[in-house]
């Protein structure tokens, strides 16, 4: 993995909510998130090789950004807002074998729109190993982890922030079960039932909770400010004052000229 040294001690302190001195980091505070665990593991490894009394965190930049934005003061507010009073945000991914199949991709785009999701953000990217590993960190001890990360880095993915009433639940129902044979048997018309090829190549991803949605949005859209979106933009989406831009496949707010 490619690490960078980050000198912003104040930010790191804010993230962990404690002074970072020597071994204190390991002992005092339980990590607040999966990414933090990764960071602490990396630190343990490095501190063995270092006689510095002060522990400097080295970490993957993406992981760092995610961790900081996740523990930002406004996180609690963002969480409450994303628990579903009006619109809810979720993060969806169309996985690489689908982006290579225009017919399947178009069908999934249609499913997004006909089920009244708003496309708030869209990003097309080929994931790096670091990005896929931090995204799927919770699965790192599972037998399918290596194949999953390899697959996710094998081609372009389309990553979305979607908004809708009850977005998380509705998108996961549309996707169907994680395992494709189960999807084909119990929900043959679901996205995974229709387009999944295997348990790994199961077509799409969807956040499984409001917490996961915020964590995942922070990984793929580090500059997206959830609170600002709820403050300034949600009302335009609720009021239907948005138009789907067909080229970008994103809903844009109608601006008065
Ligand atoms: N040790 C293993 C290996 C496989 N499987 C299950 O069997 C499925 C099919 O395994 P495999 O033939 O290796 O997968 P492929 O059909 O090649 O597809 P993919 O690797 O994309 O999942 C896996 O996805 C997994 O659900 C399992 O439970 N335990
Ligand atoms: N048994 C499995 N075999 C192969 N890949 C799997 C298996 N279970 C999960 N995966 C892969 O890991 C991803 C993440 O798994 P998980 O978080 O459990 O499901 P979901 O994507 O439905 O939230 C799945 O979407 C799938 O690509």
Automatic annotation (TrEMBL):
Ligand binding (ATP): 95, 144, 172, 178, 192, 202
Keywords: ATP-binding, Kinase, Magnesium, Metal-binding, Nucleotide-binding, Transferase
Molecular function GO labels: ATP binding; metal ion binding; nucleoside diphosphate kinase activity
Residues of the Nucleoside diphosphate kinase-like domain: 87-228
Active site location: 205
Cofactor(s) required, per the database record: Mg(2+)
SUPFAM superfamilies named among the record's database cross-references: Nucleoside diphosphate kinase, NDK
Catalytic activity: a 2'-deoxyribonucleoside 5'-diphosphate + ATP = a 2'-deoxyribonucleoside 5'-triphosphate + ADP
InterPro entries xref list: NDK-like_dom, NDK-like_dom_sf, NDPk6, Nucleoside_diP_kinase, Nucleoside_diP_kinase_AS
EC number(s) given by UniProt: 2.7.4.6
PROSITE patterns on file: NDPK (PS00469), NDPK_LIKE (PS51374)
An individual GO BP term: GTP biosynthetic process
Keyword ATP-binding: yes
SMART domains the record matches: NDK
Annotated family: Belongs to the NDK family.
Name of protein: Nucleoside diphosphate kinase
